[in-house]
Design goal:
single chain, alpha/beta, 6 helices, 11 strands, globular
Length: 216
């Protein structure tokens, strides 16, 4: 049996400020394992750490601790110019994020892959007027059918977004900043199961009931 498509193990990212106190202003902690191709929906409030999580998974942001492995390969040990052969981050208007490293590439590992295995769509723009939504949903499904792992991050502000997540996603992640100030992941196998969490209900507001009734 091969390695999982994605393993996020003991991952932590901290941002600090202050020359002496080095006060922590942001902390994200994450553990996640995905064995098989899937489409995973991601939600969370602005500033909770969704984009930071995506940047860590694709190697565009270096963790404070922990590891991200794509098909068994440590993404942060792979040459920056080859990391998009393992995981690719599309930000909003499908602009691809690039990677940089202070370590010379020739001292790092090869990707040993020709196409990205993990695709992360960060708040993609959907046009509801011209059939574009159907095209994108088919694209996500085609990637999954080719053995890829797909993340679709949306910030639902209208009913159609809930319907899209329910229709195409097989698993869900909610990035929540807890009372101690640390952002963590809530995982669920369906949108109604995720919507049963009070913190998710507060985040969705008027859309919480629709999410609770969603049929995938």
């Amino acid at each position: 049996m091969g390695a999982p498509l994605l393993q996020v193990q003991g991952l932590r990212k901290e941002y600090r400020r202050g020359r002496w106190s080095r006060e922590v202003t942001f902390r994200l902690e994450a553990d996640l394992s995905v064995e098989q191709p899937q489409i995973i929906g991601v939600m969370g409030a602005n500033g909770a750490g969704k984009t930071t999580l995506f940047e860590l998974i694709t190697g565009g942001n270096r963790p404070t601790a922990g590891q991200v492995r794509v098909a068994g390969r440590d993404i942060h040990a792979v040459r920056p110019g080859e990391r998009d052969r393992l995981a690719m981050h599309y930000h909003q208007s499908y602009q691809v994020r690039d990677h940089r490293s202070l370590k010379p590439g020739f001292l790092m590992q090869r990707a040993h892959s020709t196409r990205a295995l993990v695709h992360l769509f960060d708040e993609p723009q959907f046009n509801t007027q011209d059939g574009y939504i159907g095209f994108m949903l088919d694209f996500f499904r085609r990637l999954r059918g080719e053995g890829r792992l797909v993340f679709v991050c949306l910030h639902p502000n209208e009913p159609v977004h809930i319907d899209l997540l329910a229709e195409v996603c097989e698993r869900f992640v909610f990035v929540q900043r807890d009372e101690d100030g640390t952002s963590r992941l809530r995982l669920a196998d369906s949108l109604p199961a995720l919507a049963a969490d009070p913190s998710v209900q507060r985040y969705l507001g008027a859309l919480a009931e629709r999410a609770a009734r969603a049929a995938g």
